[in-house]
Structures are given as structure tokens and as C-alpha cells.
Amino acid sequence: MTDASATVSDVAVSTARSAPKAATAVGWAVATKGAVPRQLGLSRAALEANGFEGNPGQVLAVPNGDGVAVAIGVGEPGAIDAAGLRSAAAAFARAASKHAQLATNLADVEGVEAKVAAQAVTEGVLLASYRYTGLKNDAKNASRLVALTLVAGPKTEKDVDKGAQRGQTIASAAAFARELANTPPTHLNATDIAAKAVEIGAEAGLQVEVFNKNQLEQMGCGGIIGVNRGSTEPPRMVKLTWSPKSPTGHLALVGKGIMYDSGGISLKPSDNFHQNMKMDMSGAAAVLATMSVLKELKVKTKVTAWLMCTDNMPSGSALKLGDVLTMRNGKTVEIHNTDAEGRLVLADGLSLAVEEAPDAIVDIATLTGAALVALGESIAPVLGTSQALVDQLIERSAATDEPLWQLPLDSKRYRKLLDSVVADMKNIGGPYGGSITASIFLSEFVGDIPWAHIDMAGPMMVGADDGIYAKGATGFGTRLLIDLASNFSPPL
Ligand code: BES
Ligand code: MN
Ligand code: ZN
User: Fold this and answer.
1) Phi/psi class of residue 246: alpha, beta or left (left: φ > 0; alpha: ψ in -120 to 50)?
2) Is residue 151's pLDDT more than 90?
3) How much is the pLDDT for 41?
4) What distances in angstroms separate CA 433 from CA 184, 260, 341, 343, 418, one per listed residue?
């Protein structure tokens, strides 16, 4: 696997008091009122005559010589927030996509703290420029971005520089998660992602343990072993640990790593919708990408992570309907649909996380098509046993603009939908409320530890370029989990 995410970390991001000569595309923030930056060389009347009013995210590219000056709308003076800046920066990057050296004063805008603004702008430019080109012979679609300069005033320069560095680290992580999810399933199997984790762990100051099929069997991880039964590729569970000195808390992360989800015996149809099941490891990708930058960001929280990696395939040895699996925590599950496999691998991961008694567990998974039905492609359901933890996630999701919406974990009403005649539970509920019943299933494996679950089936990918996203995998959840780990406070 080639690493286009490296291009994001290779971009030279810097801060300066003015736009460097070499920057052929320079973006200037323009509000709906007030002065227009003189460097644009245009009056407000001229901008308006071309349909540019300064609304958030609006851009107008004005050619000058070999380069381009770009007016970037930031809305009412002082009204823009970090999410708006990230989107505006993405719009600028798209308008300037033919250029290698970019500069902008967007991080020096009224109303957002300089460090936060610079982080958002850097993320916006870098993530909008990401392209998956690892398997293309023709590189004409590859990102041309080589350098980004954030233009800042004397007072903000230092903070802008700090924010820009943080933004680049975080954007590189999100791009890495995209890269993993965009990679075809045979180019990235469970063994490959585990090897990748070992490689990254060494650089990122993590302890990495890889568990193979025999070890998982011996550990009683009946969920991941069961799902793997139909596959010729062996499973891998990866445990990653970030142990800072005198940690301020302990967060556990669990990621669904279905490297390819065919549905198993409950085979999926070969339609467009299922074309994307190479991305069914997007949860594990977000977790691995998060872990990869904790050292660089000097995160004070201890973080332990489990990646639950296997294919879900049909074959003569595959899991059958009616089979009963015994999970790591001893609970038994009757299989009613082999396509509800994510919850089976997560059951083992959550059980193992509980054994370490962390302050909280968060899992992230492309778990249910029902999440798409409930909240669409842009918003991910969040459910959990701890309202304080769910609230913390929702707060972080607002800061990172990776939207979550809480659904009720109403076990009192819906747990009975999982009742099985022969085992402790079935692996599916009824035809409705699929994201809720899947979460109730997961809640059987979290004991008394505060827990929350993010179902990223909707936002795992976009069908067309959109803001910071390039057609394909989004890396959703990476920035959110990094932000959570950076600001984590143990829920009471
Ligand atoms: N990986 C899928 C869910 C999914 C669907 C993710 C679309 C992203 C986009 C999951 O394993 C699955 O197949 N879920 C089933 C569960 C059902 C059998 C209870 C579903 O949602 O149809
Ligand atoms: Mn499935
Ligand atoms: Zn799946």
C-alpha cells in the first residue's frame, strides 16, 4: 500500500507575516461587511458584481499574472466559528487545486481564537487536498499541494503556528484513516493492518500486541473467531496502548475492523451500496489513526485500543444460521443473520476492554444500515450507558464538525427483541430500530464501565467530493476521537 496520507504530512506548513512570493494562490478572508483586503485588488462593488457577497464558504478566484487571488467568504464580521473556517479553507483549497503553493490569512480572522482557527484552516486545506492515488498509474488527479503558509499578524503569529502544526498532525491522521479505508480488501487484509499497526506503533510510542487465530481461540473470543470461520484469511486482533506518565484518566477505544463484509451466508446483493464494504473497517482505521498521533499531541490520557480485524465471508466452513457462539465474557449468542457480524467482533473487544477497568469505553463501527435510514449520510448515531460520556462526545463532535446525534438505548422496551430460545441472545432484533437493537446487543458486553457507541455507517464515505471530503472514505471519527482523547475527563 502506498501512502498518499504521507502527502498530507509532507506539505510544508508554515506561518508568516505576509504571503510568500512563491505562493501562486493566495486566499483572503472577506466578510459580508467592512473593508475588502487591498491585496485582492478589487472593490466590494466589483466582488458583488461577480456574485461574491462574502457568505461563509463562498469563494471567488481572481487571476493575477500566473497566479490567483481568492476571495474567501467568512460571513458576518465575527460570526464565523472553527467549523465554518474549516469549510471555508476547504473551499479555498478546491479553488486553488491547480497550485502547489498556497497562502491565506484565513486563520487571522475576527471571532475565533488564533490557535483554534489555524488548526481548523490547516485541516480544511490539507483534507480537501487529499486524494487516494495509491493504485493509479496516471497521477494527474493527485494533490499538487506542496506548501501552505498561514498569514498572521504580529500578535497572533505564535498561536497560529502552534495551531497549524496541530492541524497538520490531525489532518495527517484523518488522511491515514481514509487511506486504510480506501484500500481494496485484498490489498489490506487483517494481517496487513496488524503489520501496519506494529510499524506505526514503533514510531508513535505505543505498545502494540497482535493476537492471531490460535491466541484468539484460546482467549475465548468466540465472536471474532465465529465471524472469521468462512474466510481463508486469518483474523487479527490488535491491542495498542498509549501510557503517558501520570495519566489524567484511562480511555478505552474499540474499532470494528471487518476488512470486507460480504454478509457471510446471509450474502449481500452485489449492488452499489455494497460496493463499499471494503470500508467496513473504518472504525478500526479511525482508532488506529487516533492512536498514531497521541504522542505527537502529548495526550495526557492513557488510551488502550482494540482493533477487531477479520473478513466476513461465505464458504463451506462459514458460520451457519442457528449456530451459537460463546463470547469472551461468557455470554452466548444465537446467529440469526451472519451479516450482523460487527456486533460479534465488538462483543469480544468490549469484553476485553472491560477487563482493564478503564474510566470509559468508546467503540466506533460501521455497524448498521439502519443508521443511514435514521440519520442519513452525514450524521452518526451515538448511544451509551453513560450520559456524561455521550455528552462529552457530542461536545467534541461540535468542535470537530463530525456530527453525532443521540438515539435512545431503551433496553427496557427493546431488549426483548434480542431474546433467543437457545442462547442468552440473538444477534439481530426485529425489522425496525436496527441501530438501537444493535447497541442494546453491545451493551451486554460493557459491564459497569461507562460506555458509548458511535455508528459511522452513514458518514464512512461520500459519493462525491464535498468540502473537506474527497469521493470515497472520509476518515470520519478520527478527528473526533483525537479531540476526545485530548480533552478527556473521566465520566462520574
Ligand atoms: N457493515 C454493515 C453495515 C453497513 C451498511 C455499513 C451500509 C455501511 C453501509 C453491517 O455489518 C451489516 O451488514 N448490518 C446489517 C445488520 C442486519 C443484518 C441486522 C444491516 O444493517 O443490514
Ligand atoms: Mn454485515
Ligand atoms: Zn459489517
Assistant:
1) left
2) yes
3) 92
4) 31, 24, 17, 15, 12
Q: What is the mean pLDDT of residues 54-61?
A: 96
377 lines ligand 1 (CB under 6 A): no
Give the residue among 225, 117, 210, 219 at the shortest CA–CA distance from 163. Answer: 117
As a whole number of Å, the end-to-end CA separation of the chain is 43
Taking only the tens place, the pLDDT of each residue in 2-21 is 455 568 999 999 999 999 99
What whole-number distance in Å separates Cα of residue 437 and Cα of residue 410? 9
| 345 in contact with ligand 1, CB cutoff 6 A | no
CB 462 within 8 A of CB 474: yes
Q: What is the pLDDT of residues 303-335, one digit of tens each?
A: 999 999 999 999 999 999 999 999 999 999 999
Separation between Cα atoms, residue 250 and residue 247, nearest integer Å: 7
Ligand 2 centroid, distance to 164 Cα (angstroms): 39
Report how far residue 226's alpha carbon sits from residue 214's, in angstroms, rounded to the nearest whole number: 13
Among all bound ligands, the one having the nearest atom to the CA of 371 is: 1
Catalytic residue, chosen from 343, 396, 426, 479, is 343
268 catalytically annotated: yes
161-169: average pLDDT:
98
Q: Indicate which residue's Cα is closest to atom 9 of ligand 1.
A: 457
CA distance linking residue 467 with residue 82, whole number of Å: 14
Helices then strands, counting H and E runs in the chain, come out as 15, 19
Which grid cell sits at 121? Answer: 484552516
- Cα angle, residue 418 at apex, residues 415 and 421 outer, rounded to 5°: 125
Q: Is residue 37 lining ligand 1, measured as CB closer than 6 Å?
A: no
**Bridge partners, 211 (sequence order):** 237
Is 413 known to be catalytic?
no
Beta bridge partners of 96: none
342 in contact with ligand 1, CB cutoff 6 A: yes
- Enter the C-alpha cell of residue 148: 501552505
* Size (the chain), residues: 492
Indicate if the pLDDT at residue 148 is higher than 70: yes
Task: Output the residue whose Cα is nearest ligand 1's atom 22.
Answer: 369
Model confidence pLDDT, tens digit, residues 275-314: 899 999 999 999 999 999 999 999 999 999 999 999 999 9
Is the beta carbon of 13 within 6 A of some atom in ligand 1?
Answer: no
pLDDT at 5: 57
Strands (E), 83-234: 101-104, 147-151, 207-211
3-state secondary structure of 10: helix
